[in-house]
Amino acid sequence: MSNVILAILTHTESAPAVLAAATRLGTLVGGARFEVLVMRVPPVSTILVTEEVLTKEQEQKIRSHEAERAAVLHRSFDAWAAKQTGEDGPRWIDKEGLTETLVKEWGGRADYIVVGQPLDHGARAEHEALHAALFASERPVLMVPPQANAEFGKTVAVAWRDDKFTLHAVMSVLHCIPRTADIHVLMGRRDDAPVPQIPAVLAEHGVTVTGHELPVGKDVFGALLLAKAHELNADMLVMGAFVHSAWHNMMFGGVTKYMLAHADIPVLMRH
Predict the structure, then answer these.
(1) What is the mean pLDDT of residues 225-245?
(2) In the chain, which segments carry CATH 3.40.50.620?
(3) Which of 92, 161, 187, 240 is 20 to 30 Å apart from 44, CA to CA?
(4) Considering the entire predicted model, what is its pTM?
(5) Among 256, 244, 265, 26, which Cα is nearest to 127's?
(6) CATH 3.30.565.10 fits 155-270, yes or no
(7) pLDDT tens for residues 90-137?
(8) Strands 141-144 and 112-116
(9) DSSP classification of residue 122
(10) Residue 250 pLDDT greater than 80, yes or no
């Protein structure tokens, strides 16, 4: 039984990196069936609460724009799909609907979801897709920066925090990290806290790792994590994804939010 990897395309600039990362992830998990989702914005969802009606002209303009965007992304898909091998070719899924609904439906059926890092000028679609993938699908999500190395998975940094979110992320990545990978566990420690220990789950799965302590409280912790990953030449970061509370349901936790803005290597997260 093969894994299913769902790649979500939202923007033409991020599409090549997302598709390349899906290919690499498929190799790491030992083979996968690919599904590629493009979501068209429903015209009615663009209407502000102060507007009473959606005119036919507005609706047609929005649908034309979305059709053009989907067509450009489809060309990227076709070029990528032609290079794929295997009995089951990649599946193209083009749907109109609300992002959270579609990602929950299609992402919930997948083993992994791959999505692009939000870009400044295309932030809304990619932020919504990433947020829905992390917090609605309950699946591991690989966020891919546009400039990411397509051969990730050789040196992996794990941002360890002793909670279920990080454990979920680590359990997901154990199935795709090669035994030959160089794995580093980055553990935060406050001045008065006990010395952190290598997570037992890694030893129980026969994974050899190197542990590293990082000081908590003096600097932006997300920046420390990313700097340490660079120092170790890591090509992939694994971490849990967090929200602080129901009142901040649309806001990512501090480290997660930092990685969304600054990560330049693929980040595998799971809520």
Answers:
(1) 86
(2) 3-144, 155-270
(3) 92
(4) 0.91
(5) 256
(6) no
(7) 999 999 999 999 999 999 999 999 999 987 755 678 889 998 998 899
(8) parallel
(9) G
(10) no
- List, for residues 148-161, the tens digit of each pLDDT value: 888 999 999 999 88
Report d(CA 80, CA 60) in Å as an integer: 30
Residue 5 and residue 32 in contact, taking contact as beta carbons nearer than 8 Å: yes
Please check the confidence at residue 196 and state whether its pLDDT lies above 60: yes
CA 81 to chain centre: 21
What does the mean pLDDT of the chain come to? 87
**Token digits of residue 128:** 């919504």
Question: Starting at the edge strand that comes first in sequence, how are the strands of the sheet with 267-270 ordered?
Answer: 91-96, 32-40, 3-9, 112-116, 141-144, 267-270, 236-240, 155-160, 182-189, 209-215
Q: Determine the pLDDT at residue 97.
A: 95
- Per-position DSSP letters for 35-64, written without gaps between them: EEEEEEPPGGGG--TT-----HHHHHHHHH
Residues found in the chain: 271
Residues 6+ apart with CB under 8 A from 13: 119, 122, 146
Q: What is the mean pLDDT of residues 153-173?
A: 88
Name the DSSP letter for residue 22: H
H or E stretch at 5: strand 3-9
Give the model's pLDDT for residue 164.
83
Residue 81 in tokens: 């799909």
- 66: its two tokens: 């979305």
Pick the CATH number of 3-144 from 3.40.50.720, 3.50.50.60, 3.40.50.150, 3.40.50.620: 3.40.50.620
Position of tokens 């003096």?
Answer: 218
CA 69 – CA 91 distance, rounded (Å)? 18
Q: How far is CA 208 from the centre of its chain?
A: 25
